[in-house]
Amino acid sequence: MPVSPTPLPTPSVREALDHAAATTPTTPGCSSGLTSPPWDEDAFAPGSSLGYGPGASMDDVAPVGMPRQQTLPEDLRDADEDELQDRIVAARRALGDRVVLLGHFYQRDEVVRHADYVGDSFQLARAATAHPDAEAMVFCGVHFMAETADLLSGSEQAVVLPHLGAGCSMADMADVDSVADCWEQLEALYGTEADDQGRQPVVPVTYMNSSAALKAFVGERGGIVCTSSNASAVLEWAFERGRRVLFFPDQHLGRNTAKAMGVPLERMPTWAPGRPLGGNTAEQLEQARVILWHGFCSVHRRFTVDQIERARAEHPGVHVMVHPECPMPVVDAADSSGSTDAIVKTVQAAPAGSTFAIGTEINLVQRLAAQHPEHTIFCLDPVICPCSTMYRVHPAYLAWVLEELVAGRVANRITVPGEQAEHARTALRRMLAVAPSPARGTATGQADR
Ligand code: SF4
Questions:
Q1: pLDDT tens sequence across 330-356
Q2: Does the 13-169+389-416 domain belong in CATH 3.40.50.10800?
């Protein structure tokens, strides 16, 4: 296991945020509050509010039941960056192979530099299965990712999320009660009988970015999980088994994927939760091939066609590459779209001197720019605005959970309850069987792994 972190590429997003706050105090659409310590938002902190906080998710409503992080010990809140980095390294050295540290592409560099694996949510979940002897996985990402790691790792292994408030606003846009209500209405409309080709009236498909409760919901009803890497293969699987698909929570991934497969837009109604028939007519739903839940990612919906046109005007020959969670007009206007892993691989494979304008979370874009000085790489959105929930995993929380493990205590353990876990695993196993496994997470190349 690594005990010395990889070098920190500069400038980090935090440094850029500090600079932006100092020079442009009123950044449009993104609050400079991210430069404040994240423990100001934790439970019991004076004045803390129930919300996702500043960042790209600041306008989204946090669910009432969102877990709150307990207040960090004072010595960690007072520690400067160097001390925190030293404490993380010391704790990792003490824990050795007992702990595996997983870091999502969108995490800040000050955290990712300590990771054994860096990748997207699915890659990291698979990485978690590669260390059956480790006692704990520390998952530097968001809540649904830690749940998936718990589903796929051994029952004795603890999955730890450094900050309990690190959720995902998109995942929270589809709660199990609202989806169950939608399902009931669809069953009342379509019935439950298969047609003469054995196809069900509707097959539920959930994006990986959803709670374990929803993965269990689809697993129990003949459905499946997808990722941004395998969404078209998963939709094909679903169309073989059903006349329609109910796709949640991300309307954009569903729409972009189905459109590329030839499904006409008029056969993709959007389901607005809380409204009768999701705001559609019975006829629209009868004609539907894909019913799209009204969810979105606050980070990826910030990208616009205007930004693409500006990038092309200012950088002739630029390759515009966006994530499929971006709205359809943005994906249509881009040169290519793909998962975070596909974006990383495209940059790695490009000839030196290439120019990329990338539409995905700023931490990944900044890191790619630092790792590939042979290219010109910049974010399509000129405003520094990271995913606020990802950004909650500050090095102080990482130091805290690691030091707790050294002391024999497991803080912030994420577990999926038994029956729910069984059904959720069914949906995940279907996904693993249907599509070739995506490339593994990028091991960080530290010398002593
Ligand atoms: S980037 Fe978007 S989808 Fe990813 S965790 Fe943040 S809000 Fe969720």
A1: 999 999 999 999 999 999 999 999 999
A2: yes
Distance of CA 252 to the CA centre of its chain: 14
Regarding the beta carbon of 175 and ligand 1, being less than 6 Å apart is answered: no
Q: Confirm if 224 and 427 have CB atoms less than 8 A apart.
A: yes
- Tell me whether domains 13-169+389-416 and 300-379 share a fold: yes
Instruction: Describe the strand order of the beta sheet including 336-337 as a list of residue ranges.
Output: 336-337, 319-322, 355-359, 376-379
- Is 57 a pocket residue for ligand 1 (Cβ < 6 Å)? yes
Q: What single string gives the DSSP state of each residue in 137-160? A: EEEES-HHHHHHHHHHS-TT-EEE
pLDDT in tens, 17-60: 676 666 655 445 566 677 788 888 787 676 666 678 778 888 78
Nearest CA to ligand 1 atom 8: 168
Strands of the sheet containing 99-104, edge to edge, are 158-160, 136-140, 99-104, 117-119, 442-443
* Topology at the third CATH level for domain 300-379: Rossmann fold (3.40.50)
> Domain residue spans in the chain?
13-169+389-416, 172-293, 300-379
Ligand 1 atom closest to residue 300's alpha carbon, by position in its atom list: 2
Q: Atom 5 in ligand 1: which residue has the minimum CA distance?
A: 168
Residue with CA closest to ligand 1 atom 2: 297
CA distance 395 to 109: 10
Report yes or no on whether pTM surpasses 0.85. yes
> What is each CA distance from 77 to 37, 40, 83, 321, in whole angstroms?
8, 10, 11, 38
131 among annotated binding-site residues: no
